[in-house]
Fold:
Amino acid sequence: MSDTHPGTPTVGQVSLVALFVTALVTAQLTATKILAFGLPVSVPVAGDQLLLPGAALAYAVTFLASDCYAELYGRRAAQVVVNVAFVMNFVVLALVWSTILAPASPAGVDAGTFETVLGASTNIVLGSLLAYVVSQNWDVVAFHRLREYTDGDALWLRNVGSTASSQAIDTVIFVSVAFFVAPRLLGVGGALEPPAILSLIVGQYLLKLAIAVLDTPVVYAVVAAVRDREGSAVAPT
Structure:
């Protein structure tokens, strides 16, 4: 049984929110790098190499954390975390750009290099924020609809189902806005042609789908551990 007082955040709550926010901030700071993973076989559209933004790995962790949080503390609590974290994205951007614009000492890292590494372009920011707010809220809704449909059974189904669908939404929105729509509307660099856009979407989604399947045992382990520790402080099975 939990020994916390009513209204006091539990270790499970704080840990999952911390994991969610840490992964989200990491995703924001690593989104501009394009990763390339070689494949032993060729797949349709993507070929023998998966291309995806660097944020994909960290961003996948946010879905793991939010699914665990939704399962343990309910839909409303999960939506609060998702939407407060959305606002915190702007805090991250403000802090990063205030540091970029502050006077630099010659004894430190080259100011131009610092801006290149941490200063995400406008198209990346727009794609990332739009994809986040839509996909994360959908993830919470889909997770609980599947929970209701299965009467609380089959945690694996709602974890994989909600994450697979929300990751598809996230991938299409982010890649389309960041690398196709926004660069053309804003007249900035980074625009890709449709074949490259499609390859990037397929590559990113295949990896995200694999992570969604592979993280299911982790979700079971986390949920079981928190329920065992906190008892009545979490939602019932």
Residues 18 and 191 are 34 Å apart (CA to CA). Strands lie at 34-43, 47-53. The first strand starts at residue 34 and ends at 43. The chain has eight helices and two strands.
